[in-house]
Amino acid sequence: xxxxxxxxxxxxxxxxxxxxxxxxxxxxxxxxxxxxxxxxxxxxxxxxxxxxxxxxxxxxxxxxxxxxxxxxxxxxxxxxxxxxxxxxxxxxxxxxxxxxxxxxxxxxxxxxxxxxxxxxxxxxxxxxxxxxxxxxxxxxxxxxxxxxxxxxxxxxxxxxxxxxxxxxxxxxxx
Length: 174
Description:
This protein is globular. The protein has one domain (3-164): Jelly Rolls. It has helices at 3-12, 142-148, 153-158, and strands at 15-16, 23-29, 42-49, 56-61, 65-72, 75-80, 86-91, 102-105, 110-115, 121-128, 137-139. The chain is mainly β. The strands form two sheets. It has a six-stranded antiparallel β-sheet, with no helix packed on it.
C-alpha cells in the first residue's frame, strides 16, 4: 500500500458501511428535520480502493443522490434503470475524456460503483436531500438483477451485496 493511501486512511478514519461495504465517513447531518424526524440533508465522504476491497454493492435509494468526485483515480458508477436502461458513468477529473465531477442518480435506480481497473484509490462524496437514513436503502438481490439486466451479469456478480442482506441494520443513520 502506498504512503499516499496510508495518509488518506489515517486522515479520514473511514468506517465500513454496513451491507454494501464502502469505506465512508459521515460529514454532515442537518439538525433541521422533516415532519417525520428525518434530516433535511446529509453528506458523506467515501473511498474506493482495490487493496481494501472497498466498492459500492448494488442498492437503490428512495431519494435522489448527488455524487461528487474529489481526488484520486477515476471510478465507475453502474446505473440500472427500472425501464431496463443501463448506464455507466465515469467519475473523475478529466472532462475531456467524458468523466464527471458531479452526477445525480435518480431515486429508485439500482446503483453500484468501483474503482477503475488500474486505479489505486478514489475519494468521493455523496449528498442527499432529504437526508440518508437506513430505511431509504434497499440492497439488490443480485440473482434478480442478472435476470433483469443480463448484459451486465458479470458486474452484478462482482458487485453483489455481502451476505445477501437487503436492509441496513435497525436504527442505522436514524
